[in-house]
């Protein structure tokens, strides 16, 4: 069962979760983090974080908030911010970009909102806040690239030896297929995924997968890796029969 978390504690934890569920993990980090060293602007009334990585990087860069209302996309990001000593004022009920928009749209008309995230963030958040009347500025805290060594899962898929895959973002889908194309097995890898159980986090990831020819079997209602892992493992045919 392939998992595509960055090669840090998130990948280790993902492997632990899958092993606890009785799956055999195939860790294949499709994302690496290149920090930019930037921090959120100081003139914002709201600062929005969309990942644990962002929380760690602003701490390392020495960010010191003032009176901003600090928003986190979900509990994992909120916990990471708190661990670094930052207060978190808002976490949406739905842990997605659209969930953040829903939580903020009645509050931010005329307000300055700083969105601090990666260079591959969803346009849903910026456009939604802009439509709500906010003055939106985006700070790129880090860039996401594909590690050169990635691709073990691609080869297994192409050989028909992959039972399931857990994609956590649109970029992991794109990087998987890039790795397959580099190896000259893109079509075989797609065929392998067609025979596997494919789980993804969030509708944007599902839409990306579908647009690239990947059929998605599982989109958990809760946008967390734990939910993705549990529901994807449960949906593997040999386990659900």
Structural class, please?
A: alpha/beta
Give me the side-by-side strand order of the main sheet.
3-7-6-4-5
CATH topology tier name of the largest domain: Rossmann fold
Assembly type: single chain
- CATH architecture descriptor of the largest domain: 3-Layer(aba) Sandwich
Helix-strand string: EHEEEHEHHEHEHEHHEHHH
Distance between the termini: 18 Å
Question: How many helical elements?
Answer: 11
Q: Name the beta content range.
A: 15-25%
Rounded to an integer in angstroms, the radius of gyration calculated over CA atoms is 18 Å
Largest sheet: 5 strands, mixed
Characterize the overall form. elongated
What integer is the average pLDDT? 93
The top level CATH class name of the largest domain: Alpha Beta
| Spans where pLDDT lies below 50 across 5 or more residues | none
Enzyme class: lyase
InterPro entries: 4pyrrol_syn_uPrphyn_synt_sf, 4pyrrol_synth_uPrphyn_synth, UROS/Hem4
Protein name: Uroporphyrinogen-III synthase
EC number: 4.2.1.75
